[in-house]
Amino acid sequence: MSYTGPDFEPPQPRRSRLRRPLTVAVAALVPGALLGWGVYAAVGGPDDGDTGGGGSDRAGAVRTSASPSSDGPASEDGDAEKPVGSSPAPTSEAPSASRPPATGALKGKVVVIDPGHNPANFQHATEINRKVNVGTHWKECDTTGTATNAGWPEAKFTLDVAHRLRDLLEKQGATVKLTQDGDRSFGPCVDERARIGNEAKADAAISIHADGSGAGNRGFHVIMPGAVHDGAADTRAVVEPSAELGKRVAGSFVRVTGTAPSNYVGDGTGLVTRTDLGGLNLSTVPKVFIECGNMRDSTDAALLTSGSWRQKAAEGMSEGIVSFLRG
Ligand SMILES: [Zn+2]
To answer: If exposure means fewest CB atoms within 10 Å of the residue's CB, which of 58, 224, 294, 300 is most exposed?
Structure first.
């Protein structure tokens, strides 16, 4: 999200609310099914990660109307107000560098996790509004991210899920690096977020976000890089492996969380290709973004604010990444 305050409501290109019959059952959305689905380019969101209220209005086709898993909290209060430390998974551990050497199936593999935004970006408007070059154009260094209607910020969500994902991948033996771990006063800028993955020679990189779209817009989507060759950006070598990574992450995310793909972008596939995101344009390693849900929709927010759902979300991402890395 690109707005600068938690109360901003992004403009909503209203979509027609076609209520088509359920055509794809969530149970059927196994990775194999996703692999066969088409991917279309949704270009034009103003920010670096979120679709800003559904940059595409192709959502008329509500392919999936199945409800997400019903074990989340009934309201968006959920566990959002609880200290992060009350979550089942540890969330504030020592940096990866001090961890024991990896021995599992992913030994030797490097994964870079990019927790979108930064909880302190709100206090650094000047710094995060500085323009950086992302190959195709100049854009803000970073953005504040969105928040639930109750005020729980996306940046806290992304960092929590990143910690859970890091733990899961390290158990598989991967070497994991975070682009930020709540240890910076702002940012990093989107170009640096990409550079961290590049310099780590990551075998896979994932940027974690939650969207800030209109109420009624629900579900997750995975954003994959389109082919860009402009200025410092050259994604041509990573388009294909990133698409493979994205499909595997989306498939595992559906299966593990039971959450339906977005009903407002991606034509029901949960997959979107974009060429406007600096974090993808500047990546020279396989990389995807995931928008885990819409923080501005109360039903999605109830999931996003649930620690148990965030654990499932991390497990879904982890299984997709492990599948990609093991080939
Ligand atoms: Zn975001």
So the answer is: 58
